Amino acid sequence: MRLLLAIVMVLAVGCSSEPDVDAAVIISNIRFEPSEVSVPVGGTVEWTFDDGGLLHEVHADGVFDSGVNGDNTFRFTFDEPGDVDYQCSIHPHMTGTIHVG
Ligand SMILES: [Cu+2]
């Protein structure tokens, strides 16, 4: 019983050490909101797919790809300074920019 309690405590600490999100983007009404965010170098952006189950795929050539997603979140950490333009692979008119650094 004591061992079980110790395991539960380790799991709880593991969850709380998840990296912080520096900017949040909501995907809703077939757009990114906000479409532009700024993060420091090493900053993490989290996209939340909240478009009634409509599928989207957040994609920046050679940088990241969320995969096709309808009801979840996607996170990416930006380690290089600069501007990263991205779009939805399914709806190419959905575009956004991450300013890093
Ligand atoms: Cu889309």
TrEMBL record:
<dbReference type="InterPro" id="IPR052721">
    <property type="entry name" value="ET_Amicyanin"/>
</dbReference>
<dbReference type="InterPro" id="IPR008972">
    <property type="entry name" value="Cupredoxin"/>
</dbReference>
<protein>
    <submittedName>
        <fullName>Plastocyanin</fullName>
    </submittedName>
</protein>
